[in-house]
Amino acid sequence: MRILYELSVVANFVALILFFIFAYKKSRPVFVAASSILAAGTLMLMLFLAIQGVQHNTQPVITPFLSYNFLAMLIYLLYFLFEFRFKMQLLGTFLVPVGFFFNIVSLFSRNVQVAQLKMASPFLLGIHTGFLMLGEALFILAFASSVMYLIQEKNLKSKRFNQWYSRLPSLGKLEEMTGLGVSAGFPLMTTGLLIGFFWAAKVWGPGWYFDPKVIWSAAMWVIYAWLFYGKVSDRIRGHRFAVAVVWCVVLILFSFLVSSFLPSIHTLKKSYGAK
Amino acid sequence: MGLVLVGLNHETAPVELREKVGLNPEDLKEALNKLTRDSDLRELVILSTCNRTELVAFVPDDDKGEANLVSFLADRAGVPLSEIREHIYQFWGLKAVEHIFSVASGLESMVLGEPQITGQVKDAFDRAIEAGTAGKRLSSIYRHTIQTVKQVRTQTEIARNAVSISYVAVELARKVFGELKGKRALLVGAGEMCELAATHLKERGVDAVDVTNRTFSRAERLASRFDGHPYPLGNLREALEVADIVVSSTGSPESIIGKADVEAALRKRKSASLLLIDIAVPRDIEPEVGDLPGVFLFDIDDLQKVIEANKEKRKKEAEKAAQLIARRVREYEKWRRMQDVNPVIVELRQNVEAMRKEELEKSLKNLHGCSEEVRRELDRLSYSVMNKMLHQPITELKRAAREENLEGGLVSFFRSIFKLD
User: Fold this and answer.
1) HEC states along B143-174?
2) Which residue among A157, A159, A173 places its CB closest to the CB of B178?
3) Which residues of chain B are within 8 Å of residue A149 when distances are taken between CB atoms?
4) Which one of A89, A168, B304, B388 is least enclosed by Cβ atoms within 10 Å?
5) pLDDT band at residue B230 using 50, 70 and 90 as cut-offs
6) Number of alpha helices (DSSP H) and beta strands (DSSP E) in chain B
């Protein structure tokens, strides 16, 4: 089944290249080819993850390798969903590289065999990771639209009426998309964290909250809560909102990667439970 | 029967000549009737706009037909034939069709890709149909023209980018806000340019257009037209607090909107974006306003830059449109050839069917008392033989019509070998 995963990575890489070509040369056939190849790659990734889940009778998010790929898959799916909704075409050029980044990161993640894991409450752990991933994917979507927002804003402010000005969507549309990403991502992330805390308390016992990853996650949540509040109350808008989203996503990605690569109390030994 | 087009436009004739030759709607009907009555024209359409007058006709004799049309233009202009010939262009056959498609698509317009010409071409054909001077042939060209224009508009971006100040203002507003529904505009000054921009903004969904002006009564009149509020010029800050789009064009020698005014408004706007378009010279809005966060300021030079960039884009799209039109002309020609052979095919089938029925009747009379089943079988057999025998020649005729210029040769040959009328 590894072949499915490898084919998916190749397909997504080709799609990524085509999205870059499309960014510089507006061509409908290139866009259609990029989207079709990405659809094929995403489908293969979904199949691979589903097979992993069925084979090991668990959710396909319980190892770093699987969770990174799960996140990549969610990002690709969100691309199709939002492209269908907003029809902005250049979204692929900004979002697919982030998805592919996780495809690649997964290759360097800790090699844990699902079959070797003996987890406590694996269902809860899977739900926790699933919600978090979906929330993160939505924040990453907000990140991509914020980057597009900042480029388009720069074009307008500096009166550069170039190709990017013509092809990037309006600031209004980009802000709407960013808002959707944050508004939908925050409740999912919150749910994921609450389930995670519950799981940690159950499995790790007293003192679970001293884990650096837990503390870091809680800090991230506070930042996102501020962002979410700023959005729903209309207190943070436009340029400030786009910049805030970019920084928050950079921070959360950093925390996500650091926690995965550096040892902490949140280690496999503890997480996957050795009794 | 040939198609001929004679005309003059803004590139070939000066305005003094164009205005003499141009026809208003009342004159047009009379001209259509007179020309078809007095000349040997079978069908005629006249397109007359401020930039062009074109006569399109089906004529039995190309040269004679063209001479009639040129004479008509010379008479209207009150100049000798030799002089009018210096300012006109002529197209025959498919070149004429291509020219009609190009004109209707805006490729020959002064402002490349402008959409009004399509309506004018439609009106011209409608008037000719009303007057009874556009028959089957010109109506089919009209149909193909409209289909071509639709394809040009949907498959190219020739009309997408704004090339006038007022439309550029709308384009910029859409780049900043996306949908303009729910947005509010403010006009500073009540001049013609502001009014035009307000009209376009309202057409694109802006909820209301407020107006502030030195002469308050004018502000009141204009604001009521666009569902907005009038503001005395002194209450500008108050108006800025609720506006999303500001279009300013006053004759003031000094700035009307300063950085402090906008800063004060921004504090009450919860960081909502503000688009300011200053089309006045000297400028109404201090340039420093553009440095404020969430504020997008464009002056007349910026708008001109957008127009130039958009004109370049339109030129590129015009190349695509020309290719599309060339393809559409080929499709039209194929369709037209099929129209030549279709009557022949119908007639051939009718004749052979009549022959079959006659022979079948004879056979059935000879077969006294044959059963209904035998009758049906004979009918089916003869029908099947007829179809099989006709299939190949008809297919070949259709293929030849699609792929070759028959020039009537094959059709005549067909008629003679099958003894058709």
Assistant:
1) HHHHHHHHHHHHHCCCCCCCCCHHHHHHHHHH
2) A173
3) none
4) B388
5) very high
6) 15, 10
Burial of B123 (0-12, 13-18, 19+ CB in 10 A): middle
Helix A122-157 crosses helix A64-86 at what angle (to 10 degrees)? 50
Q: What average pLDDT does range A41-69 have in this prediction?
A: 83
- Asked whether the beta carbons of residue B296 and residue A156 sit closer than 8 angstroms, the reply is yes
User: What is the per-residue pLDDT for A270?
Assistant: 47
Under an 8 A CB cutoff, do A238 and B293 touch? yes
Q: B88, B5 in Cβ contact below 8 A?
A: no
The alpha-carbon gap from A178 to the nearest alpha carbon of chain B, in Å, equals 14
pLDDT in tens, B118-148: 999 999 999 999 999 999 899 999 999 999 9
Domain boundaries along the sequence of chain A = 2-271
ω before B282 within 30° of 0 (cis)?
yes
Q: Which of residues 48-77 of B touch A (CB under 8 A)?
A: none
Rounded distance between C-alpha atoms, residue A142 and residue B110, angstroms: 44
Q: CB count, 10 Å around CB of B363? A: 13
- A-chain residue closest to B309, CA distance: A161
Q: Please give the backbone phi and psi of residue A89, each rounded to the nearest 5 degrees, phi first.
A: 60, -50
Contact B52, B9 (CB under 8 A): yes
The predicted structure's pLDDT at residue A274: 37
Mean pLDDT taken over chain A: 84
Residue pair B228/B190 in contact by the 8 Å Cβ criterion: no
Neighbour order of strands in the sheet with B295-299 = B230-232, B208-213, B184-188, B245-248, B274-278, B295-299
Q: Do A156 and B176 touch (CB under 8 A)?
A: yes
What's the pTM value of the predicted model, to 2 decimals?
Answer: 0.73
DSSP string, A133-171: HHHHHHHHHHHHHHHHHHHHHHHHHTT--SHHHHHS--H
Order the strands of the B2-9 sheet from edge to edge: B43-48, B52-59, B2-9, B89-92
Q: What mean pLDDT is predicted for residues A150-155?
A: 95
Joined tokens for residue B337: 């050839």
b or e along B78-92 (b: 16 or more beta carbons within 10 Å of the residue's beta carbon)? ebeeeebeebbebbb
List, as ranges, residues 265-284 from B with C-beta within 8 Å of A. 270-273
A242 CB neighbours in chain B (<8 A) are: none
Closest CB to A237: pick one of B172, B271, B290. B271
Gap between the Cα atoms of A65 and A196, Å rounded: 19
Residue B135: which of B32, B42, B30 has the closest Cα? B42
pLDDT in tens, A207-262: 777 777 777 788 888 988 998 998 888 888 888 899 999 998 888 777 766 666 55
- Choose the catalytic residue: B14, B34, B40, B50: B50
Name the phi and psi angles at B50, rounded to 5: -70, -20
CA distance A21 to A15: 10
Is B194 annotated as catalytic? no
Which chain A residue is nearest to residue B174, measuring alpha carbons? A170
**Rounded-to-integer distance, Cα B22 and Cα B39, Å:** 20
